[in-house]
Amino acid sequence: MTKKKKSEEGGWEPYVMTPGEALAFLDSKGIKYEICDTPVPVLGNKVNCGLPLDSGEQMVDDYYYLPKSVVGLSPTVNIPTRGDSMIDADIHEGDLLQLEIGAVAHDGDIVIATIDGECTAKVFFIDDQKRKWLLPRNKNYDPILLSADKETRITGVVRSIVKKAPRMSFSECAAIVSFAKAKKCQEGDVFERLSKAMKGGCPLFWAASAWAVAYGVVRDCCGYDESMKEFERKAMNMTLPMNFKFVCTMGTVQRTISNHPYMRLHVDKWKENGASTREIVLAGYLKNLLL
Hints:
single chain; alpha+beta; 9-stranded mixed β-sheet; two-stranded antiparallel sheet; 7 helices; 13 strands; 30% helix; flat
């Protein structure tokens, strides 16, 4: 935290508070806070989310510092994952599992278990015959029955998952840019065709609210997915005939659609839901010219 203090030149400059000053300031303002003073180690070896693998030596790569209320009383570690047997539980390779060591496992808990010296992450379950199972969350893997001939130990219960930030490839990024450019060109073409349609359809625009019909046709028949406000902005910048009486204004489309709920439906369903004859005529005229 910082505060301002007078500089030697007489002005004010930022000053970094000491921890004691920061706590005193928060106390004086009645601000509730928690101190991140509890280390949570991140293990360097990865727990398997596929077939069990040798857990190996537990090497600490780094530490997180969290409040005691978050960590709890039991020791907590973060373990990186690999494999795909837990993908239906939204656990993917590279995620960090925050493990509460020594916690009692209940049915449905995701646990870290060691089977004959091999470590794996699975769902813990006891069936009606009191048999203990470790269940994958991927239909391509089979449940593991913890039989008496297997040396099994539940290391702890997974309390939270820290997701790995995805990284997109160059081709994926380029595809998004190309799609956006193509969409912009298509959108420009739609408004150009709409402008041309206005030249021959001036008499069909009986009021400014008729722009809601134009929006509905562009939205449902031309793949336009921008907001009504964005449509209004672009419609206001369109080149219209000199004798065009009812230009679009901000808020006109939104107000009209709010007052006519059927306009939220596809234009092909307007007639059966109460649209007027002039709305149907204008919609049909625009559809013929824009498609």
